[in-house]
Amino acid sequence: MRVPLVVISIFISTLTFASDSLLFNEIKNEKDWQKVVELAKAQNKLLFVDAYADWCAYCHQLDEEVYTNNQVIKYFNNNFINVKFDTESEYGAQLANIFGVSSLPTLFFITEDQEIFDTILGFIPAPALMAYGQRAVDDFAQLPILEKKYDDLIATNEEKLELIRILENKDFERAAEIAKDYISQLKLVDYLENVENLWLVSRFENHLSSAPYGYMTTHKSEIIEAHGIDEYEDYFKTIYNDNLQLAIKYGDENLLYQLIREVLPEFLPEVEIPEAAFITKKLYFGQRRNYQKYQFEVNSYMNNHVAADSKVDFLFSNGLEIIEDQEDVAMLQFAANLLTQATAINPTHFEAAALLGYAKGLLGDYDVAIAQIEKAKTIAQNDEQKEMADSLILAVQQMKGS
């Protein structure tokens, strides 16, 4: 009698438990991949997928330190179809592209429908991999049960929260849809009794016109009493970060200034707000390439908030930041102007003098740049600074010759 291939595969997999290392199915072509997918379907298991390359040191560290762990071997052989593919092989490169591999090692838990259930980036020790694996198994088993309960309108609030958590990695749009429905029914008492509701709204309903944001700002003392100042401030930090990204993306200056006016004071001491507001505006105007306003904010903050004995460091750090981040000629000229001011205040500041020369080089004033760096070299205080000056001169010479 012919034994079905699936049965043979199941039998073979049971023989791997005695191994001193976790055994993987190595994927070299589409046929290999389809076999493991079919095996996952037959056994109703997730695929555990290791995307690697021969040159990847952390990939080898996983092989040597993690996949030899007895707990990992037993648990992963029992609960997953274990798969490896070389991202630099012909078919492995295709899989890497399909699953969006951008760094190595990358580990996936993938469903029989070839959808990513969870992702681990980078090296992970055995105990942490066990925790990921156990969570993946539990979530995979619970997901269809929770989805049916939700669809049948019998899911409890705790079950809805669990469903949203599981779906966030697998199907964010569906998670957001359920979260929006859940959040619409929340009252103040729900935020006071369950801190998970704070975390949920910070991820899914955090715009400044939302009802949850209104609850947080108008019931500050109750929220802090219920959950502590750290939870309250963490909520507003998330609000700040997410909404600043939105403001930058859509060019919304009203939102920018609302964040500065309303949100920063909720998690920062008053003395720190001017600097935080300055950094916020620099991020916004820099990303939006509104360089005129960027320059205005730098000059304004320097004139109104920077003490005389801190001005050189301020000028230097802002000049360096622009040179590192910008290629716009007007901004590079602004950086050169800042560094010129710094060297005027303190002619012995080596870093400012040397960086000014490099900025001149970026602007195409090569002879002036080299002369400026040579001048900076005369005030170098140690061999390291002299070597830095020589490196900058070489860099400008290369610019000139290119």
From TrEMBL:
Stored Gene3D superfamilies: Glutaredoxin, Tetratricopeptide repeat domain
Q: Which residues form the Thioredoxin domain?
A: 12-142
What organism, scientifically named, is this protein from?
A: Roseivirga seohaensis subsp. aquiponti
A single GO BP annotation from the record?
A: response to stress
Question: Which PROSITE patterns does the record associate with it?
Answer: THIOREDOXIN_2
Task: Spell out the protein name for this chain.
Answer: Thioredoxin domain-containing protein
Q: Name one Pfam family in it.
A: Thioredoxin_2
